Amino acid sequence: MLFSSMTLASKLQPWWLLLVSFLLVSNIYDCANAEPQVPCYFIFGDSLSDNGNNNNLATTAKVNYSPYGIDFPKGPTGRFTNGRTMQDIIVQLLDFQVFIPPFATARGKEILKGANYASGSAGILNETGEQLGDRISMNMQLSNHQIIISTLAEILGKCSASNLLSKCIYAVQIGSNDYINNYFIPEFYNTSRLYTPEEYAAYLIEQYSQQIKTLYNDGARMLALFGIGSIGCTPKAIAEYGTNGSACVEKLNNAAQLFNERLISLVDELNSNPTNAKFTYLNPSGTNTANSLGFTVTNASCCEIGSDGELCVSNSEPCANRSQYMFWDAVHPSDAWNAVIATQAYSTQSTTEAYPLNILNLAQQQSNNEGELSVECTGRKFSYHYVI
Q1: What distance in Å separates the CA atoms of residue 363 and residue 40, rounded to the nearest whole number?
Q2: How many CB atoms are closer than 10 A to CB 171?
Q3: For residues 261 and 257, what is the distance between their CA atoms, to the nearest angstrom?
Q4: Residue 314 annotated to the active site
């Protein structure tokens, strides 16, 4: 069994831990008869999760070219990494036999397994990332989700669709761009002049809480809310700001931490309400463990970086030892690091990394409490009573 093997792997030496974890996740499809632990999985977010939604947009934030996808079976797909995103790997760990399709190309009954709405450069705020071109903001992603809901209702009927939606996991990883493509570029945005870092975090969480309310009112009952990672530790941040002797750019990480602290408080608030929904916070950083897991390069990109200081040069030759690099380009993690963070989110027992539930525990909520988590369905109408 996969999870038993992972437990055994955790007792091995660090280099072997990385190798075994990578092989286990890479070969998860060998369990051809395994049923997914949840019937569907919906993904909202930015370039950390985008799997092709930006490909046909008028934006510089798209990567449907080589060397992106060099380690992905289908080659360049629009994923901002050499292989799989963290969400791809979580989907594999949940025993799905195919990756969740991007909203841009999702068709027919494949949406019964979910949809990926994530868009490179997108943020919680509508204007975030606009200096890079078109993007699908979180609010627009919610609108796209409502299109999928309507299509599901046409396929299944409204009552069956609402019951299906209540059993899905909704993964939301967004907010990084509201800092690196908004707050910290005052030449394009005035948010840093309007708000202190503390005020800005509060403002973002206020907007974010309304977006989570929309998801709930649209039928979501199991929500995984990912915090902002160590945005001050990316090669781009280090090159742009310098570190003054620190390992990372502290002002960026401190701002992200303010957001994460408020997000954890929001999760507590949501879970304290007497509803049939479950919310959990996931920490996507884990940078302190990189060296012990065999990552020998933690502050440089694997590929040649272009003039934007962020993305790989088209058709350039990347590094050969990609499994030893935390970062693929100057901002986005490698497949190998995504595997570490995804496995952590899925099965960690640390409340610092997953609070109060990891993804495995969250998935078990729908199987252990089937009736409790089902949305009420009277006739052909949805019934929601929760206000955040």
Answers
A1: 10
A2: 28
A3: 6
A4: no
Instruction: Take residue 145 and report the two structure tokens written for it.
Output: 């989700």
Determine the 3-state secondary structure of 288 from DSSP. helix
Tokens of 192: 């840093």
Query: Residue 206: what residue type?
Result: E
Spatial CB neighbours of 74, under 8 Å, sequence gap ≥ 6: none
- Closest by CA to 301, choosing from 286, 312, 285, 290, is 312
d(CA 41, CA 162): 14
pLDDT at 22: 45
Query: d(Cα 361, Cα 375) in Å, to the nearest integer?
Result: 20
- Hey, is 310 helix, strand or coil? coil
Backbone φ and ψ for 116, nearest 5 degrees, come out as -110, 115
Global pTM value: 0.89
Query: What are the structure tokens assigned to 360, written together?
Result: 């495995």
Task: Calculate the CA dihedral of residues 120, 167, 149, 49 and round it to 10 degrees.
Answer: 10
pLDDT digits (tens, 9 = 90+) for 104-116: 999 999 999 999 9
* Residue of 329, 334, 335, 347 marked catalytic: 329
DSSP 3-state of 45: strand
Amino acid letter, residue 216: Y
145 is a catalytic site residue: no
Q: What is the pLDDT of residue 29?
A: 43
Residue pair 59/47 in contact by the 8 Å Cβ criterion:
no
**Residue 370 pLDDT class (50, 70, 90 cuts):** low
- The encoded tokens of residue 129 equal 């990332």
379, two tokens: 């006739």
Catalytic residue among 121, 218, 230, 332: 332
Helices (H) and strands (E) in the chain, counts: 13, 9
The Cα 71–Cα 232 span in angstroms is 27
Active site includes 385?
no
pLDDT digits (tens, 9 = 90+) for 160-213: 999 999 999 999 999 999 999 999 999 999 999 999 999 999 999 999 999 999
At 94, give phi and psi (nearest 5°).
-85, 5
